[in-house]
Write a structure and sequence with these properties.
Elements (H helix, E strand, L loop, with lengths): L3 E5 L2 H8 L3 E7 L2 E7 L3 E5 L4 H15 L3 E10 L9 E2 L3 E4 L5 E3 L16 E4 L6 H11 L3 E3 L2 H10 L4 E9 L12 E2 L2 E2 L1 H8 L6 H26 L22
Parallel strand pairs: 1-4, 1-5, 5-11, 7-9, 9-10
Antiparallel strand pairs: 2-3, 3-4, 5-10, 6-11, 7-8, 12-13
Helix pairs in contact: 1-6, 2-4
Length: 252
C-alpha cells in the first residue's frame, strides 16, 4: 500500500508524474474518484476549490491509509521574489475563510532552512486577481496563494497525519487571472467555453498563450521536485524511501 498520498486539483498539474501510474476507480461518500497508483505513492485529482479538495483528501485517506498527505499543485505568487516555475514548500498554510493556520511538516525536513520553505501560503475560494494578490500579501504576510491546500491540511489534522504543501508558481504577482473564475464549474475548468470566450477577444490570446506556457513549466518543475525530493528521499521523518529515479526540474 502506498504510504505517500498526493491531492491535486486537476490532472494537468501532475501529468508529468502520473502519466504511467496505474488507474483505480473507487467510491467514497457517494462519489467516484480516480486514483493514480505507483509502488510508493498514490494521487487523486479532486477538482478545483476547497470542497473538492476536502472530498479528495478524505477519499484518499479512507482508501489508502497513507503516512503522509501532500497538497500539490500550482499557485500564484503574492510577492515579486517568487517567479514562474519556482517550486515552493510553505511552512504555514492559512485558510482565508476563517483565518485558521496549519503548520506543515517541512519544518522537520532538511529543506527547512531553504527560503522557499519559510513561506506562507493562503488558500482562498477563487482564483486571485492582481489587486487581491496584493491585499492577501498585506493581510496575511503570505507569499503565495491557491484554492485547495488549507482543506487538505485540515484533513491531515483530523486524521493526525503529517502534511506537506508543495506548490509551483504558474503566475507572478502582476499576472491577472480573475477572468478565469467564471469558467470554473463543479470544480472543473470549462476549457471549451473558455475557448469560445477567447475567440472574439484577440487581445487576450498572447496572454493565454503565456499562461499555458507558464503552466507547463510549473507542472514540469513541480513533478520533478516531487519525484526526486518527496518521493525518492526521506523528506519527513518516518516516511519511506523509494528506488524510483528522477531528475530535478529547471527553469530553462
Amino acid at each position: 500500500m502506498p504510504k505517500i498520498a498526493i491531492v491535486a486539483a486537476i490532472e494537468r498539474e501532475l501529468s508529468p508524474l502520473i502519466r504511467s501510474w496505474r488507474l483505480t476507480k473507487l467510491e467514497h461518500g457517494g462519489r467516484e474518484f480516480t486514483f493514480y497508483e505507483s509502488d510508493y505513492a498514490v494521487a487523486v485529482c479532486s477538482g478545483m476549490g476547497s470542497e473538492c479538495a476536502r472530498r479528495g483528501a478524505e477519499a484518499i485517506v479512507a482508501n489508502y491509509s497513507p503516512e503522509l498527505l501532500i497538497s500539490a499543485g500550482l499557485a500564484g505568487a503574492l510577492v515579486a521574489e517568487l517567479h514562474v516555475g519556482d517550486s515552493v514548500f510553505p511552512a504555514t498554510v492559512i485558510d482565508a475563510r476563517d483565518g485558521s493556520r496549519h503548520e506543515t511538516s517541512i519544518r522537520d525536513a532538511v529543506l527547512a532552512k531553504s527560503p522557499l520553505a519559510r513561506t506562507i501560503l493562503v488558500s482562498i475560494p477563487e482564483v486571485a486577481g492582481t489587486a487581491q494578490k496584493r491585499q492577501l500579501a498585506k493581510s496575511y504576510g503570505a507569499h503565495l496563494v491557491d484554492m485547495e491546500a488549507a482543506s487538505v491540511a485540515r484533513a491531515a489534522q483530523v486524521h493526525s497525519l503529517p502534511f506537506l504543501a508543495v506548490k509551483a508558481i504558474s503566475d507572478d504577482v502582476d499576472f491577472e487571472l480573475a477572468e478565469l473564475n467564471r469558467f470554473i464549474r463543479n470544480g472543473q475548468f470549462e476549457t471549451k467555453l473558455f475557448g469560445l470566450y477567447l475567440l472574439p477577444r484577440p487581445w487576450l490570446w498572447l496572454k493565454m498563450i503565456r499562461l499555458a506556457r507558464n503552466t507547463r513549466l510549473a507542472s514540469h518543475n513541480l513533478c520533478s521536485w516531487l519525484r526526486e525530493s518527496a518521493l525518492t528521499n526521506t523528506i519527513v521523518p518516518g516516511t519511506p524511501k523509494s528506488t524510483s529515479e528522477g531528475t530535478r526540474g529547471s527553469k530553462t
